Amino acid sequence: MGQVERRGGELPPGQRLQRGWPVTHYGPVPRFKSDRWEFRVFGATADGDKTCWNHEEFSSLPYDTVVADFHCVTKFSMLGMEWGGVSAGTVVKLAPPADDVTHVMVWAEYGFSSNLRIEDFLDDTSIFATHKGGEPLTAEHGFPVRLVVPRLYAWKGPKWVRGVEYMTADRRGFWEERGYHNVGDAWAEQRYTYQEAPGDGPEL
């Protein structure tokens, strides 16, 4: 059963409606090799061990759908997109974090990373998407797996995800070390580091 993340079809501050889906990312599109692909959950896990799924195993995990809006920090938004895949809640249920975990680092190809507060990661609409609109993602849009966290700007949900690290303290990810807001709440228009309030993130 899908969840809906909407505020009456409104756009967050500073956003404009986008009809198509632009391709935006840093660096080249990775080549997918199914025999080498692995999704890992590691770090401060409840049992101190890591959990790994190969592509076939990950594709067999419970499938969920989410209908949610998509907000890019470059100021375009798309409304009512349907995502299919494995919910963040399912990953956490199968590979639980330790009780003192406060943040996660989501790791993607080429060492790209994005940090999130555990409450944002565990939002009902957060999903490791493998499909959009019922169709598999294209390579340019993150195939085989991208994280979608509708309540945050889209950069907080990396394409080409390879794993999740549970953390007991915050640590900035790739863009968060390069001038982008550590939290990235689209409705609070948290775009850049200079907008951070005390407590929003660790010092640079």
Automatic annotation (TrEMBL):
Residues 27-175 form the Oxidoreductase molybdopterin-binding domain. Coiled coil: none annotated. Pfam families: Oxidored_molyb. PANTHER family: OXIDOREDUCTASE MOLYBDOPTERIN-BINDING DOMAIN-CONTAINING PROTEIN (PTHR43032:SF4), PROTEIN-METHIONINE-SULFOXIDE REDUCTASE (PTHR43032). This is Sulfite oxidase-like oxidoreductase.
